[in-house]
Design a protein that fits this description.
Layout lengths: L1 H18 L5 H32 L5 H28 L8 H35 L7 H7 L2 H23 L20 H38 L6 H36 L5 H32 L1 H18 L8 H18 L8 H4 L21
Pfam families: 7tm_1
Organism: Cyprinus carpio carpio
GO cellular component, one term: plasma membrane
């Protein structure tokens, strides 16, 4: 009897999906083009960022570890986009099988939430080091937070936990798969566990968002207060400017993720009850548009690194300038001594950039302390006192 019931349920679900086509034909080509652009620009930006963090940027701190992992998460997410482009380019037809569909979809979401969590950890790290460590220098826990070991441990735990959660979702069937379809709206009345897990991830996002608001808000307020109370300090104008820049991170995060997660709760709730065909089409269309903004974050993360971190920006510009000048030089030189001298100057110039400031953005790369030989024209966090 139970076998017959399950068969009837699957048949009814398949018939319901076929009787209610969800795809908007006019949206198919724009989605393929936009995902292609996001993939190309995001791939170039994140590969460049990863190269800078690994080989040019000499800061061995916790934020560098987190940013390397953000770039890796963005790259894995971007690797899922060509499959979406192929799906839309082929008329919303999936030809790679249901297991591959689940792998691509789940890896996309896993890396999106890994990136979100890492951004929250960066804000928490900056807040603790700028405001929390000054009054408690002798605490063992806070002393441990001053190094980069805690960020390495946290990233290992984050990736391990994410894989533990995503592997069963890829391996286990939900019973609502439709042949030839992927990335579309699905009813989950028979797969409530997945729906509740999606709601849990929405709650994780809002928790991270609150952490970002509180951390960056207090850092910005502290900088603005220092600029207002001590206008005669050499870096007073930098405090106000850096406080303004701190909201760029919140703005990008809000644009990319808040619309999707504000809508996500309604989307999941509709999957758990019977809704009309019009409602299903509206949910599917809105989800596709909101998801584009979330994928766009993988392009904007590298922009944030290079625009807001002075040391990363200078190292990148200097390296690219040297690469372009090398490309315009003759392939054969008459003097090996000249080539050796050029290489030596290249390394010296790069080394001169790397030990510069901790970055013009205190919320990403500044630390509560800076050495006399480790400064830039604007080091806004260092002079702050409790």
């Amino acid at each position: 009897m139970s076998t017959v019931t399950m068969t009837d349920r699957f048949t009814n679900h398949t018939f319901s999906n076929r009787s209610c086509p969800l795809e908007e034909e006019n949206l198919r080509l724009p989605l393929a083009v936009l995902y292609s652009l996001i993939f190309l620009f995001g791939l170039a930006g994140n590969l460049l960022a990863l190269w800078v963090f690994l080989f040019l940027h000499s800061r061995r701190n916790s934020v560098r570890v987190f940013l390397i992992n953000v770039a890796l998460a963005d790259l894995v997410l971007l690797a899922c986009l060509p499959f979406r482009v192929l799906y839309h380019a082929q008329g919303n037809v999936w030809s790679l099988g249901p297991r591959m569909c689940k792998a691509v979809g789940n890896l996309f979401y896993m890396n999106m939430y890994v990136s979100i969590t890492l951004m929250g950890l960066i804000s928490l790290d900056r807040y603790l080091k700028i405001t929390g460590l000054r009054g408690s220098q002798k605490g063992c826990g806070l002393r441990w937070l001053r190094g980069s070991r805690w960020s390495l441990v946290t990233c290992v735990l984050l990736w391990s936990g994410s894989l533990v959660m995503v592997v069963p979702m890829i391996a286990l069937a939900e019973g609502n798969e439709e042949p030839g379809k992927c990335f579309q709206y699905k009813q989950r009345k028979q797969a409530r566990g997945k729906a509740y897990f999606n709601l849990f991830m929405v709650a994780v996002f809002w928790l991270v968002f609150v952490v970002l608001l509180v951390s960056y808000g207090r850092i910005a307020r502290r900088l603005q207060r220092a600029s207002r109370d001590k206008p005669d300090l050499p870096n007073a104008t930098c405090y106000a400017r850096t406080a303004t820049k701190s909201f760029v991170v919140l703005l990008l995060f809000t644009i990319c993720f808040v619309p999707y997660h504000a809508f996500r709760g309604f989307y999941v709730a509709s999957q758990l009850r019977d809704v009309s065909c019009e409602t299903q089409r509206l949910m599917d269309l809105t989800n596709e548009v909101m998801l584009l903004f979330s994928a766009l974050n993988s392009c904007l993360d590298p922009v944030m690194y290079f625009m807001l971190s002075g040391s990363v920006r200078k190292a990148t510009i200097r390296a690219l300038s040297q690469f372009l000048s090398w490309q315009h030089e003759p392939a054969v030189t008459n003097s090996s001594t000249t080539e050796l001298r050029r290489t030596s100057v290249s390394h010296t110039s790069t080394a001169a950039v790397l030990p510069t400031s901790r970055g013009s953005l205190g919320l990403i790369t500044a630390s509560p302390r800076s050495k006399p030989d480790d400064r830039e024209s604007c080091t806004p966090i260092t002079p702050l006192k409790n």
